[in-house]
Amino acid sequence: MIDAIKSLRQAPWSCQLGLLVITLYFFVAVAAPILAPYGEIEIVGDSYEPWSDEFILGTDNIGRDMLSRLIFGARNTVGIAITITAIAFVIGALTGLLAATLRGWVDQVMSRIVDVLMAIPGLVFILLVLAIFGTEIPVLIIVIALFEATRVFRLSRAVAMNVEVMDFVEVAKLRGESLWWVIRREILPNVMAPLIAEFGVRFTYTFLFIAGLSFLGLGIQPPTADWGSMVRENSVLITFSDFTPLMPAAAIALLTVSVNFVIDWFLHKSSGLKE
Q: Is residue 64 classed as helix, strand or coil in its secondary structure?
């Protein structure tokens, strides 16, 4: 713990700023009911009321407080993105490590299935599945997580294959260690750095993808607060020189940049390069 704190203190200012922003976002997401002045779906005024002491960021197209919606949007958008990324990594990393360790027909079958899924344009595939099964949040999570798992599979399989041929892995197999022991104790610790970096990249991509789907009307559905749908619902204000719709867009951009700052630093640390 002490070493981690010392390492963070020596991190560049961009990484420290990114960590500060990420921490702030998570705090807002957890404490949204306390921080928000009004309810998530509560209609508190007229449509498109301007900024005022009562409504700091004005109201949206049906009279809901924009600041409250922005705060609750952090919980919904970020929370769903993390859930999807976590599920994708459990599925993708586990199958990738299994394919790299077992090889043979298991590796061939898994790899060909992933190749077929990755050959389909991502947006087209997800839009088609959502059109068939609906846009409820559980369906959204499962569909995007399965699609993202294919990317994680390719990375975990590639890095695990480089480790699986090492002498210490062969020694563990000769000792009679079980498959799961070899994966958990020998291979996984040696591939954690690229997997953690990929987790950040996948989270950023998923976060932007969900916002994009919501902007198109196929992501998180109303009345649930979501930054992508907030931009779409209030975009008409931009024609009147009101930049309120840009607030959720700025929130999306700020978190994306912050996560990439942290990923860059982590990749630099895991590479072993010196300043």
A: strand
pLDDT of residue 86: 92
- The answer to the question of residue 231 being in a domain is yes
DSSP string of 172-204, one letter each residue: HHHTT--HHHIIIIIIHHHHHHHHHHHHHHHHH
The whole domain housing 161 covers 24-40+52-271
Q: Residue 34: how many CB atoms within 10 A of its CB?
A: 8
CATH label of the domain that carries residue 131 = 1.10.3720.10
Q: Taking the mean position of all CA atoms in its chain, how far away is CA 171? A: 37
Give the residue from 204, 160, 198 showing the smallest Cα distance to 182.
Answer: 160
Which two tokens mark 273?
């390069």
Task: Report the domain count for the chain.
Answer: 1
pLDDT of residue 60 exceeding 70: yes
In a domain, 264, yes or no: yes
**Which CA distances in Å does 73 have to 17, 83, 165, 238?**
22, 15, 46, 20
Is 67 a residue whose pLDDT tops 60? yes
Residue 267 has pLDDT above 80, yes or no: no
Q: What is the pTM of this model?
A: 0.84
Residue 101 within any structural domain of the chain: yes
Q: Are 22 and 262 in contact (CB under 8 A)?
A: yes
List the one residue out of 183, 192, 191, 195 whose CA is nearest residue 98.
183
Tokens standing for 228? 């992508």
For residue 113 the two structure tokens come to 């299935």
Answer whether 81's CB lies under 8 Å from 207's CB.
yes
Q: pLDDT digits over 159-190, tens only? A: 988 888 888 888 888 888 788 888 888 888 88
